[in-house]
Amino acid sequence: MFFKQALDKQLDSWIADLREHANLPVKLRLWNGSEYPLGRYDKPNVTLTVREAGALPLLLTPSLDNLGEAYVQEKIDLDGKLTDIIDVGYRFSAAAKRRAGGALAKVARHFTHTKQEDKNAIQYHYDVSNEFYSQWLDPGMVYSCAYFEQGNEDLATAQRKKIDHILTKIRLQPDQTLLDIGCGWGALVLRAAEKFGGRCVGITLSQNQFDLATARVRAAGLSDRIEIRLQDYRDISGTFDRITSVGMFEHVGKKNLTAYFGRMRELLADNGVAMNHGITVPDPSDAPMDGSTFMDRYVFPQGELPHIGLVLKTMQEGGLEAFDVELLRRHYAQTLRHWADNFEAHSSAIRDMVGEKKYRIWRVYLAGCAHAFDTDTMSIYQVVCHKAGEPSSGIPWSRRYIYDHPIGLND
């Protein structure tokens, strides 16, 4: 009885504080039918239903990790437009930080990134099923930031433009060799061979990606130009004229970045060009973001995001000189909005396919990431580089070549 009274008092204080300071467009509904407005709105656009008393402690300190955990474990339900729900989640978290007198305590994470651990992590995330990803990705199955040249392209067009943007940036020429580290379902190497005439090797640790990419290469009649391998980047041998890494280094680990870029340098031919396309965080400190525990547990095991400053530092330490850096944060926010909308449009089929828990994980993950990129909580850069210390005779004097003169063979 004493515990219940103390909890009720704490809940009343929390509700009063939120109404006064946060003014959230939320109606709180408890398991016993009681309802409380958390803001001064006639018609709140989000209803937060607490399904059991055990969820209340998570709400009283509502970090993104706690809210995500409660939602995935079906301790709470959230009804309303997905964009409104995510906005409310961030505002809950901000209110909790204010009540705590600053940033909430964050737990340091330490990952070892052995080959087996990285393989397990990749397969956990990417081997949900190819059919699952096909429900919300573009037809080319490109699972990385698209490039919206005009801002109003459909997703498929923007993804094709992203791949062309990359291949034009690295100046891939006919019959040059290209290594794509983390090739996904093969979209980049397929385009590189078909349009630019490259001879490509794509590697992945995902069995599902390997199977489908191999089948797509065979169906396109490009087996003589493209080889798909189920292989760790640390086990590659040989040299390549061009190297791309798209959405891969997030799985490497911050302490391994210098070695990762050093490995890219070893694999890069003299006068070769490489490009790293990866997610970063705006905070240069090493502290994990709010929501990172949820991401590590449910979405990206062992995933780590560096600041762009650390990327450039470790790239140089690995023997690569950056000569072109482009921010694509707005482009990823737009990409994620497309993915989240597709996910919502196919929610019934996805629920049937993967079950309620995984459906909830991915629903909140996609929409939450869209908000994070919109608000500069997360960012993304493309960095084009070559071997440090090499003459720069092959590098154009201006960036105009990227936009004015596409060098592909076919559209």
TrEMBL record:
<keyword id="KW-0949">S-adenosyl-L-methionine</keyword>
<dbReference type="GO" id="GO:0032259">
    <property type="term" value="P:methylation"/>
</dbReference>
<feature type="active site">
    <location>
        <position position="369"/>
    </location>
</feature>
<protein>
    <recommendedName>
        <fullName>DUF7884 domain-containing protein</fullName>
    </recommendedName>
</protein>
<feature type="domain" description="DUF7884">
    <location>
        <begin position="18"/>
        <end position="93"/>
    </location>
</feature>
<dbReference type="GO" id="GO:0008610">
    <property type="term" value="P:lipid biosynthetic process"/>
</dbReference>
<dbReference type="Pfam" id="PF02353">
    <property type="entry name" value="CMAS"/>
</dbReference>
<dbReference type="InterPro" id="IPR003333">
    <property type="entry name" value="CMAS"/>
</dbReference>
<keyword id="KW-0808">Transferase</keyword>
<dbReference type="GO" id="GO:0008168">
    <property type="term" value="F:methyltransferase activity"/>
</dbReference>
<comment type="similarity">
    <text>Belongs to the CFA/CMAS family.</text>
</comment>
<dbReference type="InterPro" id="IPR050723">
    <property type="entry name" value="CFA/CMAS"/>
</dbReference>
<dbReference type="InterPro" id="IPR057206">
    <property type="entry name" value="DUF7884"/>
</dbReference>
<dbReference type="InterPro" id="IPR029063">
    <property type="entry name" value="SAM-dependent_MTases_sf"/>
</dbReference>
<keyword id="KW-0443">Lipid metabolism</keyword>
<dbReference type="Pfam" id="PF25371">
    <property type="entry name" value="DUF7884"/>
</dbReference>
<keyword id="KW-0489">Methyltransferase</keyword>
